[in-house]
Amino acid sequence: MGVTTKDLARICGVSRATITRALYGTGSIREETRQRILDTAKELGYQPDLMARSLVMGKSRMIGAIVVDLRNQYFPKMIDAIEKRTKESSYMLNISLHEDDKEEEKKLIRAMVGYHADGLILNCIN
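The structure assignment produced for this chain is given below.
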């Protein structure tokens, strides 16, 4: 397990709230404190826990795309356009293929719902 905000707070001698303000640019914080926290986080390889953050914020910042396959040139072009738009909006795109299998399609939809995808793009089987 990597470095947590609790670890950063202990190492930097500040509260977790101060760590959060420094990392996400919210609230007021002295510039020297913010820079010290950011430098320490970078030095220690801090990576935010996106699952924990999604629970707190109520958003996964993930869009799911479930398509039949990528052999038809329509789908790669569509996925490319979706990927560009999701990146612009700071979302991740999770692409899954159902290979024209209705049961696999249902399983993938349930998985995306289980991961609390903020949106779902489907290429449904008729």
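Interim note for the steering committee: The radius of gyration is 19 Å. The chain has a mean pLDDT of 92.
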